[in-house]
Amino acid sequence: MSTSTEPLLKHLHNQSRLRVWSLIITFFGDSIIEKGGEVEASRLKVLMQAMGIEAGTLRTALSRLTNDNWIERYKIGKNTIYRLGDRGLKEFGPASKIIYSPPKITSEKKWKLIITPDFDTEPYGFNLQPGVSIVPISHDVPKGSLIFEGKINMLSETTCYKLLPKGYLEEINQLIDLLSPIKFVNLNPLEAMIARTLVIHNWRKIVLKFPEVPNEFTPKSWKGYNIRFMVKNIYDGLTPQADTWLNLPTEKSVINFGNFKTPKRF
């Protein structure tokens, strides 16, 4: 296996609890849903085994996902085909917008400060403290909120660091430390698919856990300031070879992924 994938695989297996079902969902959301939405069990098995996932562990994870309606399965002859179920499709849409939204180049000029009386609801926009959040002026806001509109004066680096969600800085730093030393070059198609899947898997876990931090609230001296650009550049570089692997036939291929265009990400 390439030296480009070794650190990613080591990181995957060094986790205290490897959630194979989550890794499968990452692969579906990243590589399958926009290319017909279905994949053969044989192709999924090849990828997961190349990542060091044992066949029995894969079967257990697929069974769990099927029982929980994340995925569905059916047969074409002797071939088992998997696709996202109702729950998986419902979750994928909102998650995809967060994971693959493009890096923001321009700054927002005006903002809404929102105060909501119900602290138990999910934070809306960028949460400053319980019940208080901020969103760009064009965004809708929850009904019954107290709203203030205006511009944001230049924030100090110290203030920006204090406004970052708890744990966000540490997890982004860990991702940067994982990805920065890796040279994603000279990968064969399978290795490129492994690398792309694992990069997005790590990225997905962070951006779905924490709210998006606006550029205006991100410390410019922090190495994580341009993290979305970093992930985008790695992703774009891996995609041609990763898609080549999807287009290659497997022993029991019945799906031609070459019939589908590569979706625009980031």
Name the average pLDDT.
Answer: 93
**Portion in strands:** 5-15%
Question: Which percent bin holds the helix content?
Answer: 40-55%
The first-level CATH class of the largest domain is given as Mainly Alpha
Number of strands: 7
The CATH superfamily of the largest domain is Winged helix-like DNA-binding domain superfamily/Winged helix DNA-binding domain
Please state the CA-atom Rg, rounded to the nearest Å: 20 Å
Order of helices and strands: HHEHHEEHEEEEHHHH
Question: What does this protein look like?
Answer:
The protein is an alpha+beta fold. The chain has two domains: 6-103 and 160-259, Orthogonal Bundle (Arc Repressor Mutant, subunit A); 110-150, no CATH class. It is built from nine helices and seven strands; from the N terminus they run H-H-E-H-H-E-E-H-E-E-E-E-H-H-H-H. The strands form two sheets. Strands 5-6-4-7 form a four-stranded antiparallel β-sheet, with no helix packed on it. A three-stranded antiparallel β-sheet has the order 1-3-2. Strand 5 and strand 6 (132-136) form a beta hairpin. The protein is globular and about 60 Å long. The model has no long low-confidence stretch (mean pLDDT 93).
